[in-house]
Amino acid sequence: MWNRGMLNLTGIQEDEVLGHVYDELPGDWPDLLLETAAQSTFESISEIAIKSKPRELQLIAYRVRLKDFGSACVVHLHDMSRRKQHTDRYIHQQRMESLGRLAGGIAHDFNNILTIIRGNALVLRNDESLSDKQRSVSESVIKATQKGAAMINRLLTFSKPQPFTPYPLDIANLVDETMSLVSHADWERIQVETEMEPDLPSVKGDANRLSQVLVNLFVNARDAMPEGGTLSVVVQRRNFLTPSELPQAGVDPGTYLLIAVSDTGVGIPRDVQDRIFEPFFTTKSTGKGTGLGLPNVHSIVKQHGGWVDLESSDGEGSTFTVYLPAAPED
Ligand SMILES: Nc1ncnc2c1ncn2[C@@H]1O[C@H](COP(=O)(O)OP(=O)(O)OP(=O)(O)O)[C@@H](O)[C@H]1O
Ligand SMILES: [Mg+2]
In the chain, fewer beta carbons within 10 Å around the N or the C end? Predict the structure, then answer.
């Protein structure tokens, strides 16, 4: 027999196998079967390309003796590519967590130092015997500590996410509000399109943090289109009924809201894609980007029980898709 799973994994039809002697079988099968016959059990994990595109498959084969049938060979094929994807993501998550801990430790100690600098600069500024020049120097020290404090806040957002009280939110509304907040400066050449599915379920979460997620994605999209272009936002409902339909490990099946933010900008090359969620990874010039936007996006979305997907290729724009679990409907 040759079941549907074999057909799906190998692309070989039942009638190409049944009733044929082993050396008439397509691809690597004759060799695999010979090896099984020689060893009585055989196991390998390898890239097997039979008729479908090459995939990492685990192959387990063994000989059995069946009553009324004689000697038979049983072959199991197991698709490893999904598992590999999950393992890759898991390793990536661990890396992010350790980077987060490291950044959190630095932020904490650095914050103490900043507080001292700022406190002393404030004392200095209030000294009436200061010359104008000295006062202006102390002003700029204070300004720099403010910038530093803002940066540390962003660092702490992803390294030590604070708990929040979730409220039911209308995401379509949040998208509109956030868009009108950001799309003022430098947006002349950007065309904005939004497409919201009607009757969307709400999401339980923190409006400020989710708005921060959107700001980061919108601003990144704008930055990716220096010559202008189209920024489109699509909000839809998506059902993942079983764990196997979920593209992400560690999240629950159910209804999700998908927010896809696409631009027609410069795109992200493959090797850069692996790094963009890391803290401090930026391709922007010093002073323009700190590389803390996407780590925050990742951390906030994860805190809401969702995940982020990215699709992009060099020169062809990017789509960041955020999935958030829908609140149960009453
Ligand atoms: N839509 C996009 N198109 C092309 N590249 C992108 C896009 N979004 C992010 N990137 C790349 O990912 C990098 C990291 O993005 P991230 O938002 O974390 O930091 P940043 O934008 O550089 O700085 P910050 O957000 O802290 O001001 C960017 O420097 C850019 O190279
Ligand atoms: Mg950014």
Answer: C
Among protein residues, the one with the nearest Cα to ligand 1's atom 27 is 289
- Residue 55 Cα to ligand 1 midpoint, Å, equals 32
Angle at 244 between CA 59 and CA 300, to 5 degrees: 125
Torsion-angle region of 254 (φ positive above 0: left; ψ -120 to 50: alpha; else: beta): left
Ligand nearest to the CA of 232: 1
Residue 291 structure tokens: 């590389």
In three-state secondary structure terms, 265 is: coil
What residue owns the CA closest to ligand 1's atom 19? 291
Considering only CA atoms, which residue is closest to atom 5 of ligand 1?
268
Q: Give tens-digit pLDDT for 41-85.
A: 667 666 665 555 666 777 787 878 878 777 777 888 888 777 777
- The per-residue pLDDT for range 146-193, each reduced to its tens digit, is 999 988 888 888 888 889 999 999 999 999 999 998 888 778 899 999
Give rounded-to-5 percent helix, strand, coil for the chain.
Answer: 45, 25, 30
Q: Tell me: the pLDDT tens digits for 122-144?
A: 999 999 999 999 999 999 999 99
Position 37 confidence tier, pLDDT thresholds 50, 70, 90: low
Beta-carbon contacts of residue 279 (< 8 Å; ≥ 6 apart): 99, 100, 103, 155, 158, 159, 291, 292, 295
Residues with CB under 6 A from ligand 1: 216, 220-221, 224, 263, 265-266, 268, 276, 281-284, 289-294, 318
Cα angle value 117/282/163 (rounded, 5°): 65
CB atoms under 10 Å from CB of 328, counted, come to 10
Residue nearest to ligand 1 atom 7, measured at CA? 220
Find the ligand nearest to 296 CA.
1
- Tens digit of pLDDT for each residue in 247-280? 877 788 999 999 999 999 999 998 899 889 988 8
- Ligand closest to the CA atom of residue 282: 1
Q: For residues 308 and 310, give the distance between their C-alpha atoms in angstroms, rounded to a whole number.
A: 7
